[in-house]
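Minimal example, chain plus magnesium ion.
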Amino acid sequence: MNSSKKFIETKEYKRFEEFCDTCIQYKYIGICYGLPGVGKTLSSRYYANWDKISDQIDYNKAKNIGDNATEDIKAAHTIFYTAPAEKATRISSDINTLGYRLAMTKQIYQIKMNEMEENYDTISAFSEVELIIVDEIDRLKLQHLEQLRNIYDQQDVAMVFIGMPGIEKRLSRYPQLFSRIGFAHEFDNLSKDETHHILEYKWADLGVDLKLEDFSDYEAMTSVIKITKGNFRLIHRLFAQIDRILKINQLETITVEVVEAARDSLVIGI
Ligand SMILES: Nc1ncnc2c1ncn2[C@@H]1O[C@H](COP(=O)(O)OP(=O)(O)OP(=O)(O)O)[C@@H](O)[C@H]1O
Ligand SMILES: [Mg+2]
């Protein structure tokens, strides 16, 4: 993989975006579930513009608050939070801190740009937050989920919980939380057509150290599509193996045999 790897706005991403927008519109809790590697985390971060925003609101990364802020901060309204694998008791305070820093950084930036008068009274942890996306929701036990319910009940925000398939059933065992869930959304694999489209037209964005011309024929490409079944993580892993096999065997072209050898060397059974 190289640095040209980019987020690709797939159809599944567009559906996810629409799902988040709808949760905001109705101020609902939504659950989004999907198999590992389909792109749930990356899509959530992209929706929240989190690569940029998390940096800009990180007090440790700036001498003064707002030093790193850019125009992006003005449109920021979503917090992306990964449920911790341990010490889940601090979820509320973690989310509060993120919300507060978002509001503070936004205001300081706008004051600096002369777009706003100083008025720190209006700042609270949720004054600028419309949506909180919580990733890895499967990690949380009931007592920890209660912290999220509490935030939802007290604040005027929407939430999206991201988890594995089956999470909707698990959450249904907690009626108080479940009754607040407005929508469920399945994050699916890429379709065959879209995988094909990406391989052919978005090749550069995949950031793979190979060239599209390296494919020997259409069949070799079709076998990549068949093996990966539109799972983004598998696509990347398969290409890493293909690259390795080409190098080891000093080959120049990606043939069906190369693709199959790459598949066989992947650890997981597919
Ligand atoms: N839209 C996209 N554009 C480019 N690459 C993507 C995209 N979505 C996913 N990927 C690639 O697939 C990998 C897996 O995506 P991601 O971590 O978001 O999956 P996930 O659904 O959150 O999986 P898990 O359930 O294991 O957490 C990413 O590291 C990235 O390389
Ligand atoms: Mg994930």
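The chain has two domains: 11-186, 192-265. The radius of gyration is 22 Å.
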